[in-house]
Structures are given as structure tokens and as C-alpha cells.
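Problem: given the chain below (117 residues), write out its structure.
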Amino acid sequence: MNVYKMDHHHLGSSNKNISHYAQTLTYLLGELKHVFDQRVDDPDSTKVSAFERLGEISKIMRLILEKYPLLKSKELLLDASNLVHAVKTYDYQNYSLERHSKLMDSINALYRSFQFK
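Solution.
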């Protein structure tokens, strides 16, 4: 179940704030994708940028889950954990289409967890 499948009336007047946070998270996930799609010549620079984006994503997710604990789900936490693992274990020195695809899948899974349905 996606976190936003719940009825909006359960969240009261906070919908506007949730929408803002979800948009921010979506933007940051897009920025993380962009880091990996650039494939620059300096893998260390890519790693630093990826970890910076991951830190920003973690901050906004913590904020969302602290403000709206009803959104916490096993799926969301698993998707977030998988993304952290994928970014931290990514082989920045050796590009592989398979590893790149798995990383993109992790980003997309977390993105889908925050979609309004």
C-alpha cells in the first residue's frame, strides 16, 4: 500500500503541507537520479554529490514521518532502506548498466511510495 492511498480526510488540514513535503522529496529524488545520469569523469565527485542528495532525502523523510506518523509503513521504510543501501554500496569507480538500473529502481520505488493515489 502506498502511503498516500489513505483518504485525505484522515489527514485533515495538513494536506497542503504533506503535498509540499512530497513535492520536495520528489524533487530531491530527481536530483539524485541526475547525479547518477551525469556519469562525469570524476567518480569521487559523483559519490560526494550522491551522498549529499541522500542526506537531503533522509532529512525530508524524517521530517515527514515525524510530522505525519500515520504515513509510516513497512513498504516505505523498506524502500528508504533499499535506497540508502544502493547509494552506499554503488560502485562509483566502475560503471555498470545493471548496477545503474538497480539504483534507478531503488529511487523509483521510494518515489512510488510517496505518490498520491
